Amino acid sequence: xxxxxxxxxxxxxxxxxxxxxxxxxxxxxxxxxxxxxxxxxxxxxxxx
Length: 48
Prior knowledge:
The protein is an all-alpha fold. The chain has one domain (1-48). The chain has one helix and no strands. The protein has one helix at 8-42. The longest helix is centred in the middle third of the chain and has 35 residues, at 8-42. The chain is rod-shaped.
């Protein structure tokens, strides 16, 4: 961008794409953790 090789819109689009990828990664990590917790409970590892 400093050398005029990318427009401001292209930079914003790239940043948006990165943010979406990071959000997807966070959701995937959360879902994985919830899956492990559900498995633990299903195997009788938790008391209620």
